[in-house]
Amino acid sequence: MSLAFLLTSLIVVASPGTGVLYTLAAALTRGSRASVAAAFGCTLGIVPAMSAAMLGLAAVLHTSALAFAALKWCGVAYLLYMAWQTLREQGALAVETDVDARSAGRVIVTGFLINILNPKLSIFFLAFLPQFIATGEAHPLLRMGELSAVFMAMTFAVFVVYGLFAAAVRDRVVSRPKVMRWLRRGFAGAFAALGARLAFAEREP
Other CB atoms closer than 10 Å to residue 63's CB: what's the count? Predict the structure, then answer.
């Protein structure tokens, strides 16, 4: 495992995006357990993108305008739905004092959907991972699977750190209605902005 791969992956994973945003939201409103569930869901959402890249399906998204647009607009709609739910004090920023198995399951499913509905993720894997596979590699798919597993492990670890940090200050935030109101607006705006960015995303040439 090259140092270049590890450093590049860390930069990509740690960069704020929909997964980080959702994990922080879950931590602030539901606590540390929910933040771990969110991190797990977002990490699980990488599996379809990784599998698509390994099977060559990402190449279809890369070349087919219709396939790319269909998945992209589903992702945009879901992010805008997240923004609306957040403003309504439901969804990502609905405060819950007790997180049971059913609630944790919803957090995981939402995190999974956030990543699976991003077509750029599949294309990222198709463009990113092959750079770290030697030309003469005897088992390229196996090597790609190993790199993907490391990337997923790093994603989960970094998201958990983000989430636990946010959960540590949760009591100070949740107990202040004015702060929560502005947080909801900020998170809703961020989800909407990410949706807008995805809406203007184009297939790589």
Answer: 10
CB atoms within 10 A of CB 121: 25
How many whole angstroms separate alpha carbon 136 and alpha carbon 139?
Answer: 9
Query: Are 25 and 92 contacting, i.e. CB atoms less than 8 angstroms apart?
Result: yes
8 A C-beta contact, residue 126 and residue 21: no
Is the model's pLDDT at 87 over the cut of 80?
no
Neighbours of 11 (CB within 10 A): 9
Report the C-alpha gap between 140 and 155 in whole angstroms.
Answer: 22
Chain segment 31-47, per-residue pLDDT in tens: 888 889 999 999 998 88
